[in-house]
């Protein structure tokens, strides 16, 4: 059944053993034996399995996601972000949801788990019975929590990933989703106010804020590559719908206060907003269409009545829109981050709500303190005695390189790690276009077209030759007196000229095809490299690895 609200879809992943990666890391980096943590290793795999399979809107799924997320935060203090395990996740939004993303990054794993937690809250809100007051309260609460998790993801988790976020977790996408959740939470509050029979002035303020939230969601959605056009049309339709609803309620308040001229002005503006909403509804589902049509019919009917009453009875001037007071806003919702997300470590313990912290005995606290003191003293020593002189020498070196005209070498020294932006951009373009396979497919299609064109050309040439032979035979049989028509090459001079012209085109095209095929063959290995992994490219590009200088 179509709904007039949206929910976040879940991100999907592959089953991997995080325990195996942690076990390998402990055995190579720590003095303690990994067998000391057998129970913890089994538990972390169990928590991940439960969390990534929580894909149905049920409150039990919230706890599974929160528990695993809390352990990932805790483990961030025990292990580096890259523990030697590629976490594979599929995007939930955009046009590449079937293309997996892989990162050896615990924070990438945490970001995906929290995205699914936000999705779980949004789906719980959608599954709530919004025909009752309690159901509306629950839905509003879930949407606020979803917005809070998205906000935490945007401000705390993604900036700390140390890698580029997935396309559907960039700032524009997360901003749009946060405003969308707030808009739907405010809409639930507005719906409850209507249900409870609040005053029209209060309902107008609530509706105006719903419109603002949807407008912000749509504005950010346009800047995102992952928010679909259907969602943007939905947000725009809702923005105009609630702008119309706000003006309609304000008009009802004017009627009650006997401001008949202002009532007409606000109803006219409401009708314009409703028409704007209807322009968007051809791209959205039936539930949104029905809401917009119902509102417009109601506004249109009231406007006819108000204009008639004012023209016949009250005769009050109708102010232009520019003179109407801007409606006040009443925001009743906010993005609320659950404590399980904002303060997960406080909820871990022997009797903690999110369970006991795993690997707590991996390294004694005193070692952490000693290591911290050592790091502070080391950094102070390095900064005071080495860094300043190194910076001066580096500046001198850069000036020398510039004077020698070596910008390429300078760039390699300034950016010794990672791929040059141009190479990374070309590689991403090749991957998105399906690389060498698309080129071969295009070449094969070209070959088919060439053969088809050549066959059509030969068929036409044969027809001209046949016609010329028949013409010559008739001329020999009847003589030039009886067969007085011009010879074929003269009668069809234009066609014969085109035969020569087209033959030249085909030969020229054939030579061009051979040249393209040769270039493709010469560069196929490099194209395949661009279509491969970043790691392969970094191994190939000399400046993407830090040079080791020897004497």
TrEMBL record:
Protein name, entry field: BRO1-domain-containing protein
SMART domains given in the database record: BRO1
Bias (Basic and acidic residues): 466-484
GO cellular component labels: endosome
Family classification: Belongs to the palA/RIM20 family.
Originating species: Aureobasidium melanogenum (Aureobasidium pullulans var. melanogenum)
Disordered, as annotated region: 466-490
Location of the BRO1 domain: 4-397
């Amino acid at each position: 059944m179509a709904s007039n609200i949206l929910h976040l879809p879940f991100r999907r992943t592959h089953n991997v053993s995080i325990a195996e990666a942690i076990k390998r890391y402990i055995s190579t980096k720590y003095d303690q034996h990994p067998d000391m943590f057998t129970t913890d290793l089994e538990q972390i795999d169990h928590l991940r399995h439960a969390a990534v399979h929580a894909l149905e809107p049920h409150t039990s799924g919230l706890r599974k996601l929160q528990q695993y997320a809390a352990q990932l935060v805790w483990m961030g203090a025990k292990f580096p972000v890259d523990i030697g395990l590629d976490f594979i996740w599929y995007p939930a939004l955009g046009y590449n949801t079937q293309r997996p993303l892989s990162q050896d990054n615990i924070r990438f794993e945490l970001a995906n788990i929290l995205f699914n937690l936000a999705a779980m809250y949004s789906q719980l809100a959608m599954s709530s019975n919004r025909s009752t007051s309690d159901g509306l309260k629950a839905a509003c609460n879930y949407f606020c929590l979803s917005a809070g998790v998205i906000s935490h993801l945007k401000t705390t988790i993604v900036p700390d990933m140390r890698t580029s976020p997935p396309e559907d977790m960039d700032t524009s996408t997360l901003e749009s989703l946060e405003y969308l959740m707030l808009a739907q939470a405010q809409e639930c509050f507005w719906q409850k106010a209507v249900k409870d029979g609040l005053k029209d002035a209060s309902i107008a303020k609530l509706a105006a804020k719903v419109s603002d939230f949807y407008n912000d969601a749509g504005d950010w959605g346009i800047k995102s590559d992952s928010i679909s056009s259907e969602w943007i049309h939905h947000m725009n339709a809702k923005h105009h719908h609630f702008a119309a609803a706000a003006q309609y309620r304000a008009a009802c308040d004017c009627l009650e206060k006997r401001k008949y001229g202002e009532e007409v002005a606000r109803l006219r503006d409401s009708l314009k907003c409703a028409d704007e909403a209807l322009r968007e509804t051809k791209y959205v589902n039936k539930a949104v269409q029905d809401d917009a049509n119902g509102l417009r019919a109601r506004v249109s009917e009231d406007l006819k009545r108000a204009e008639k009453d004012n023209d016949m009875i009250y005769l009050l001037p109708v102010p232009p829109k520019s003179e109407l007071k801007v409606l006040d806003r009443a925001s009743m919702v906010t993005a609320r981050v659950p404590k399980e997300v904002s303060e997960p470590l406080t909820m871990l313990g022997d009797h903690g709500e999110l369970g006991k912290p795993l690997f707590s005995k991996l390294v004694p606290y005193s070692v952490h303190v000693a290591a911290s003191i050592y790091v502070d003293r080391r950094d102070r020593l390095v900064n005071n005695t080495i860094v300043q002189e190194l910076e001066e020498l580096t500046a001198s070196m850069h000036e020398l390189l510039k004077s020698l005209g070596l910008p390429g070498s300078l760039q390699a020294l300034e950016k010794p790690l990672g791929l040059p932006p141009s190479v990374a951009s070309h590689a991403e373009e090749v991957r998105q276009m399906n690389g060498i396979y698309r080129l071969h497919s295009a070449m094969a299609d070209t070959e088919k077209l060439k053969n088809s064109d050549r066959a059509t050309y030969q068929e036409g040439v044969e027809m001209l030759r046949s016609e010329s032979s028949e013409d010559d035979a008739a001329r020999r049989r009847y003589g030039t007196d009886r067969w007085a028509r011009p010879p074929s090459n003269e009668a069809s001079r234009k066609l014969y000229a085109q035969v020569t012209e087209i033959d030249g085109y085909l030969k020229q095209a054939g030579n061009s095809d051979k040249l393209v095929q040769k270039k493709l063959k010469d560069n196929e290995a490099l194209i395949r490299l661009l279509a491969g992994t970043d790691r392969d490219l970094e191994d190939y590009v000399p400046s993407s690895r830090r040079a080791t200088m020897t004497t």
